[in-house]
Amino acid sequence: MRDPEEIQATLLIIEDNETQQYVLKELCQKFDYDAHIVSSGEEALSALACTRYAAILMDIALGGMNGYECTRRIRKMESEQKYRTPIIAVTGHVEDRHKCLEAGMDDYISKPFEIEHFRMMLLRNAYQPAKVNLKLLRGYH
User: pTM for this one?
Assistant: First the structure.
């Protein structure tokens, strides 16, 4: 079990592929982030109704509600709550970047990616200056 003092924050991973879920969770933990994993847009909306996350890692090609529609619904929920959670598209389709940003996502990382690119994405979107994260600031070792 991880020391709660080491956990920087919790990220929501919305991904329906179990292998990708595992990889993303392991990467989050390497940089002292906890991860809550859901497999669908519907599950994500339920999770977001009760919990605030530091950031959301969003797969685009989800079964049922896709990542674009899920993002739109999250933004609608947040507009009523007066806060905005960074949503990062995690996709294998480079041509999706414009559509992701248009749907309301804040950032984009294309699979496959280097660990350093993942670290920089976390630094841009989930870093909390009040809780110094040396693993994130210094890079992966």
Answer: 0.89
For each of the domains in the chain, give its residue range(s) and CATH number, in order of start: 10-126 (3.40.50.2300)
Measured CA to CA, the distance from residue 97 to residue 99 in angstroms comes to 6
In the sheet that holds 87-91, the strands lie side by side as 34-38, 10-14, 55-58, 87-91, 107-110
Report the distance separating Cα 55 and Cα 87, nearest Å: 6
- How many angstroms separate the CA atoms of 138 and 16, rounded? 31
- The tens digit of pLDDT for each residue in 109-137 reads 998 999 999 999 999 999 877 776 767 77
Q: Is the peptide bond before 4 cis (omega within 30 degrees of 0)?
A: no
CB 96 within 8 A of CB 68: no
pLDDT tens digit sequence for 42-64: 999 999 999 999 999 999 999 89
